[in-house]
Amino acid sequence: MLPKTTYTHTLVGMACLVPQATAFFRLPCSYSAVVERADPIMDPGTVSNHLHAVMGSNAFNFTLDYPTTQMATCSTCKVIEDKSSYWVPSLFYRAQNGSFVRVQQSGGALIYYLQRTDQKDPEFDKGLIAFPEGFRMVAGDMMNRNDSNPESLAQKAVSFVCLGVNGPASPKLPKQNCPNGLRTQLIFPSCWDGHNLDSEDHKSHMAYPTGVDSGSCPSTHPKRFITIFYEVTWSVDAFKDEWYDKTKQPFVFSHGDPEGFGYHGDFLNGWEVEVLQRAIEDCTASSGVIEECSAFTFWKDEEMAGCKVLPRVNEPVDGVLAALPGCNPVQNGPEPAVLQKDCGAVTEIGDPVLPFTDLSKTLNWRYVGCAKDPAGQGRTLDGPSDDRADMTVDSCVEFCDSKGFNYAGLEYKSQCFCGNGVAQDRMPANGTTGECDYPCAGDAKQICGGYGQVSVYLRCDEGNCRNADLTKLW
Ligand SMILES: *[C@@H]1O[C@H](CO)[C@@H](O)[C@H](O)[C@H]1NC(C)=O
Ligand SMILES: *[C@@H]1O[C@H](CO)[C@@H](O)[C@H](O)[C@H]1NC(C)=O
Ligand SMILES: *[C@@H]1O[C@H](CO)[C@@H](O)[C@H](O)[C@H]1NC(C)=O
Ligand SMILES: *[C@@H]1O[C@H](CO)[C@@H](O)[C@H](O)[C@H]1NC(C)=O
């Protein structure tokens, strides 16, 4: 059946070639803006219970309202008019000795916007609507640890796909390696009570339609939003040689969930509402290709990849961890998990963790930024260079200093380059912090550039030596 909102368009446009039920657009998000125990919906103003991978705008914070979302200067998701945040629990590998290693995402996420509607919707004639300002919701139940009610719509909304292996999506984490990645999938409810932007459990203002992502809305929740659906892919193949128990898979979500029955996701609306409404009506191609939507303008890939939120919870989330961040012992179920507290995990929101080393008061060199250094296009810093297994920020700065250069740059963990300036077009895109996030070869606590990315420092005068202020991007 043709949805009302696209009816006119269909007649005027592509006749009836495309069944409108398949209309959608797919919003690509690059890597997470931050991986941190923050959750402005579930745990506003505090360090949250478990670790999240957060996609979307750099306005993300421990508390977040709509006006603040609109101050973002970049997003890891492609559409400039979307300053929303999209987050899910992180995935960890649990080693045989009980330690945990975070699984990287292969890319960020794909957020599907599906124009699903049904003639039996109570307000079918009013058409699909965009999320209003201030709207937020949660899908999934982090406490759930069983699938004993497979008829539950909320449970059907969660699924896992093992990429590179044939077979259907499964309701729990697969018991085999996924050579092309593990894809976690989550459908959000699309039926709204029409009044509440949020609710105490962050769910009951919303309901699933009869078919989870299709079918009609209940009379209690008569208004129909566009359906959102998250796909996040995890590079589980990196652990393919580290499976140790034939009866179990070794991955666990950050909330201590070893099967995935408690997988969940959060959405905090930061859309320019009228733009999303226009897209709902106009972006009805069945290809899902977002570039075909004239309603939108787009960030460049570099702007998405360089869009970071500085973490403020002073705890490691990478490397080999003795426990999952926060108080999250693995709870197998089937009974619901019990929330744990007071295990000694960090509870303070601290100062932002800066992606550079402060040498402004010791060596009188200041951090300039994370510049690009693309291969084969001439070095960003073209003076003397060095490459050492014990490279640190300090040793590179001292090297360039001793050679009489004003600029020093660290790249790809172990490389050091000196120069006398950085071309403006190599500097990070405006409003972004850039992509420098590799630990230094000689000190894993320091950052030494990245792949084709150079952490640049500049000699400065004592008393007038200030690092680039990455906390004032917006
Ligand atoms: C995030 O919130 C903290 C307080 O929790 C505040 O100090 C900080 O300025 C906020 N970050 C940004 C980028 O506004
Ligand atoms: C535990 O296992 C991890 C992953 O295999 C390994 O990196 C780590 O060194 C081990 N830790 C100890 C204390 O043996
Ligand atoms: C299964 O999970 C549901 C929802 O979390 C819970 O109410 C039920 O008690 C659980 N079943 C068992 C056998 O523990
Ligand atoms: C950033 O903005 C400044 C001032 O508007 C401009 O001079 C500079 O060229 C911009 N840089 C980039 C990389 O676009």
UniProtKB/TrEMBL annotation:
Transmembrane parts of this sequence: none
Domain of life: Eukaryota
PROSITE patterns: PROKAR_LIPOPROTEIN, WSC
Coiled coil: none
Domain annotation WSC: ranges: 364-460
Protein's organism: Pseudomassariella vexata
Pfam families: DUF1996, WSC
Name by which UniProt lists this protein: WSC domain-containing protein
Classification of source organism: Eukaryota, Fungi, Dikarya, Ascomycota, Pezizomycotina
